[in-house]
Amino acid sequence: MASKNISRAVIRRLPRYYRYLSELMENNIVRISSKELSERMHVTASQIRQDFNNFGGFGQQGYGYNVEFLYTEIGKVLGLERTHNVIIIGAGNVGRAIANYPDFKKRGFVFTAIFDSNPSLEGIKIGECVVQSMDNLERFVSENDVEIAALTIPKCAAREVAAGLVSLGVKAMWNFAPTDLNLPGDVLVENVHLAESLMRLSYRIKELEE
Ligand code: NAI
C-alpha cells in the first residue's frame, strides 16, 4: 500500500471514513456506492472517489465499494491493523476520562499504565490501569513497548515531562496540555486542544449572528 504519497488532507479525512465504514459493517451492509456514502457523510461523491483513488480505488463500476475490504484497507493505511500501547501521564479529569473510555481499545489503542506525580493517587484503579508513581516511569518504559504517551498534565509541566519521555525513547505524544511541546522533529505530536476547538465554534456562532 503506497500510503507515503497520500496527502495530509486525505489522511485527515480517513478516520471519518473508517468510522462510517465501521458503522456500516455493524449494520451488516456489505457494499455501498460512492453516492450513498456521500449522502450519509455529507461529502461529495467525487471527493469520496478521489480520496479512495489515492490507494487504488477499490470500487467497481455498478457494484460500488465492498465495505469490509475498504474498512480493512483504510485501517492498514492508518496503521490500525496492529495494536498501539499507550501510557497516560496525569490521572486528573482528562486522564481519567481517557483511561475510562472503552472504545479506544476497540480501535487497537491499549492503555497499559497511568502515572501521576501526586502520591495520594497511587494505587487507584482507573479503567484497566492502576495509577503509578512517576518514579516507576523509566523502568516501565524500558520494560514495555510504549509507543504513545498521552499528556494530561498541566501545561507548566508538559514540556519537561515530554522531553523526559523522549529521552526514554517514547516517540509519539498525544498532547492535551494547551502548550506547544517544542520537541525534536522526529517526535510525533498530535495536539488535542479542546479550548481551541471551542473558540472555532464561537467564531462560527458569531458568523451566524452577523
Ligand atoms: P487535573 O488537575 O485534574 O489533573 C492533572 C494531573 O496531572 C493531576 O493529577 C496532577 O497530580 C498531575 N501532574 C501534575 N504535574 C505532573 C507531573 N509533572 N508529572 C506527572 N503528573 C503530574 O487537570 P485536568 O483537568 O485533567 O487537565 C489536564 C490537562 O488537560 C491540562 O493541561 C488542561 O489544561 C488540559 N485540558 C483540560 C480540560 C478539562 O476539561 N479538564 C479541557 C481541555 C484541556
Set out the fold topology.
Blueprint: H1 8-26, E1 31-32, H2 34-41, H3 45-53, E2 59-60, E3 64-66, H4 67-77, E4 84-89, H5 93-100, H6 103-106, E5 109-116, E6 125-126, E7 129-133, H7 137-143, E8 148-151, H8 155-167, E9 172-175, E10 188-191, H9 194-209
Parallel strand pairs: 4-5, 4-8, 5-7, 8-9, 9-10
Antiparallel strand pairs: 1-3, 2-3, 6-7
Helix pairs in contact: 1-4, 2-3
**What is the mean predicted local confidence, pLDDT?**
92
Strand content: 15-25%
Shape: globular
Order of helices and strands: HEHHEEHEHHEEEHEHEEH
Q: What do these coordinates show?
A:
The structure is a single chain. With 210 residues, the chain is of the alpha/beta class. It is 45% helix and 19% strand. It has 9 helices and 10 strands. It has helices at residues 8-26, 34-41, 45-53, 67-77, 93-100, 103-106, 137-143, 155-167, 194-209; strands spanning 31-32, 59-60, 64-66, 84-89, 109-116, 125-126, 129-133, 148-151, 172-175, 188-191. It has a 7-stranded mixed β-sheet. It has a 3-stranded antiparallel β-sheet with strand order 1-3-2. It is globular, with a radius of gyration of 20 Å. The mean pLDDT is 92.
